[in-house]
Amino acid sequence: MDSQKRNLKIMTFNCNGIISKLKEIESFLESNKIDIALINETNLKPSKKIYLKNYDIYRSDNIESQKGGNAIFIKRNIKHKRINIPKIESLSNVIGIKLFLSNESFAVFNIYLRPRVKLNTRDLINLCAINEKVIIGGDFNSKNKKWLCHSTDSNGKILEDFLNNNSSRIKLVSSDTPTYSPISKKKRPSIIDYFLAKKVIMTKPICKVDLDSDHVPVISVILLNNNDIETYLEKLDYNKTNWKHYRTILHEKTNHLVNINSEELLEENITILSNNISETLNKCTPKIKDFKDELPRFILAAIKYRNKIRRRYNKYGRQEDKTIINKVSRKIKESIQNYNNKKWEKSDSIKYLGVTLDKKLKFNIHIQNTIKKAKVAMNKIFSLIKYDSELNTVHTFMKN
C-alpha cells in the first residue's frame, strides 16, 4: 500500500474480553475502514490464538491473570514492525509498532493504566523519546474537567501537568462525549479513552456505540499531510457546509496576535491552525452516512437495540433492562455462530489462522496452494538464471 498518499484511521477500544466479540469487532473494523486498532483488556491466555482477516495482530497478554492484556491490529498492507518497549513502571501490557510511511515514520503505542495505579509520567516521556512522531492511545483511567469529565482525579491532574509542561510537542486528542459508561449507578460516564499525539496531527475523535462493552470505540484520523483537512471517518457533504458559521468559528478560535520568533513556535502554530480548521469543518459540514457491514442486517439491528437498552440501563439502572441486555447478547452470539456455520456449509474450504482447511479438516487444499505459490516463485527466479548456471540444474531437479 502506498500509505503516504492517504490518511490513516486509528481506533482505541476497551473491549472487556475479545473472544465472544471477535466477529463483531471484525465487522466493525471492516465497515469503518479502520487501519490501526488499539484494543485494551483482551483477557486472552497466551496459548489462545486469534485471527482477523487482512490484519496483523500484536499482543501483550497478562501472564499473571486472565484479565487484562492489550493488542494492536494493523492492516497488513501498511509497512510496519514491532517496537521493543523500554522499562515501564505504571502502565500495563504496553505494546508498540513503528509505521514506515514515505520518508517518515510513526511510533504507535497501546497502553492501559489500571484503576488506582498512580500514573508515572516518566513512562510517557520514555515512550515519546522512541521516535520523533508518536501516538499513545488506550484506556488512561485519568479524569479531568479539562477534557470534559465531571471531576478531576489524581491521575487526571498528573496528566494535565504533563501536557502543560510539554504543550509545544504533545497534545491530548479526546472526544467530546463519554467513552466509558459504567454499569454501576454510583459511577458517572467519563472520558478516559483517548490519544496523546507528539508532532502528529489527528482529527477530533468520534465515538460509535456499536460494540458490546462498557466502553465505546474512539476513532480518529491521522492526517499525514498538514494541508489535508478532509477526514474520511464519514464523507463530508460540502454542498451543505455552513461556510458563514465556519468563518465565524474559525475566526474566534484563531489567535491573530501571536508573535512567531522561532521555528519551533511556527511549527506549533501550524499544528494548532490545522487542528482548528479540521475541527471547524467537521462541525459545520453534515456527514453522508455510508455503511457496509459484513454481518446480516438483522444481527446489526439486534446490536443496535442492545446498545440502546444498555444506555437506558446506565441511566436508570433498572434490573429488567439488564435482563434484556443479557438475553439479546446471548441471541446475538448465537446468531453470529449460526451465520458462520452457514458460511462454512456453502464453502468447500475455509481459512483459519493462515491455514486453509477443507470440510474434512484436511490440509490438501492448503498444500496445493502452497505448491502453486512455490512454483510461481521458482519460475520467477528461473527467468533470471543463465542457461549454463549450476542453479539451473537444481531448478530442473526441483520441478521434477
TrEMBL record:
Residues 107-219 form the Endonuclease/exonuclease/phosphatase domain. It comes from the Eukaryota. Gene3D superfamilies: Endonuclease/exonuclease/phosphatase. One of its GO terms (molecular function) is catalytic activity. Transmembrane segments: none annotated. This is Endonuclease/exonuclease/phosphatase domain-containing protein. It comes from Phlebotomus papatasi.
